[in-house]
Amino acid sequence: MNIFRLVGDMSHLLAIIILLMKMWKSRSVAGISGKSQILFAIVFTTRYLDLFTSFVSIYNTSMKVFFIGTSYVTVYFIYQHFKPTYDSNHDTFRVEFLIVPVGGLAFLVNHEFSLLEILWTFSIYLESVAILPQLFMVSKTGEAESITSHYLFALGSYRALYLLNWIYRYYFEGFFDLIAVVAGCVQTILYCDFFYLYITKVLKGKKISLPA
Amino acid sequence: SVVCVSHDEL
């Protein structure tokens, strides 16, 4: 465990807590893409099936359980508990255009042709694009609340920090996972435009609003 | 040598 990975994990944890707090305190899921959150629930479920087959550490297990659990709570909030506030008219990204190609790619390009490994690969690929429905929603409505921006910034930072972690692990541990690195780069690149808006607007006290 | 894969990350 190096500092980049630890801070990355904390950033990921923070993002999830920010999102849950935003929904709970405001009693609303306005501006949040239910489709992205369903994709994250699929990502965690397919990646952490190894909870049943291998044990890494108490830290690793408890984070996995937390991520899976909170992803389902988030989906429940959006589609049940706070459903009247869910803005489905603006959440129109076609997720089958992500799931089908990503599923095909995981089947073709993986480390080992076994069920758990293919599902792990699928989750890595899917995570890299899972935020697209949310970014699509922000661009469609042309705005994002500050709290949603903080959530997106923390969530995007997590994978960017993992890139530093992989550089560190390559040099100091001889560890290299091409699939995770390529997907991590794609994931981080998708956030670049948002990072720019966050730094130039949100940090100066303005909310993100895009020209129509 | 380079260790390719071990899913010890989150």
From TrEMBL, chain A:
Keywords: Endoplasmic reticulum, ER-Golgi transport, Membrane, Protein transport, Receptor, Transmembrane, Transmembrane helix, Transport. Its main location: endoplasmic reticulum. It is a multi-pass membrane protein. GO terms for molecular function: ER retention sequence binding. GO terms for cellular component: endoplasmic reticulum membrane. The chain crosses the membrane at residues 6-24, 36-59, 65-82, 94-113, 119-138, 174-199. InterPro entries: ER_ret_rcpt. It is found in: Endoplasmic reticulum membrane. It comes from the Eukaryota. GO terms for biological process: protein retention in ER lumen; protein transport; vesicle-mediated transport. This is ER lumen protein-retaining receptor. It comes from Dreissena polymorpha. The lineage of its organism: Eukaryota, Metazoa, Spiralia, Lophotrochozoa, Mollusca.
